[in-house]
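Re: beginner question about structure tokens

> Can someone show what the tokenized structure looks like for a real chain? I only ever see the sequence side.

Sure, here's an example I had lying around. Input first:
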Amino acid sequence: MIMSAKVTAVMAAEEVRAHPGLTYLKERRIALGYSIREMAKMIGTTHATYAYWERGGSWPSSYWLPLLAEAMRCSIEELFLPISVENVFHLPDAEEK
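And the corresponding structure tokens:
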């Protein structure tokens, strides 16, 4: 069965929304004490774009991943992992912010 481009795009969007990794961006940002606007400014994008990533509207491209990891003080891989006891040591104390 041949699917239309619209159906394929909708299915891809649903897969992105279903992926829990994007919610971890929000968890990390909140744990670091940053607002959406602050995080967006740190990495050089708009708050609307950053918020769209957190909501699961799209994935950040490979260009943004190193910038996100640096701002969130973690590896690129950890951007898509839940905050746990094992990786909390990457989060700074409030004074270091």
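Each token stands for a local structural state, so reading them left to right follows the chain. The longest helix spans residues 5-18.
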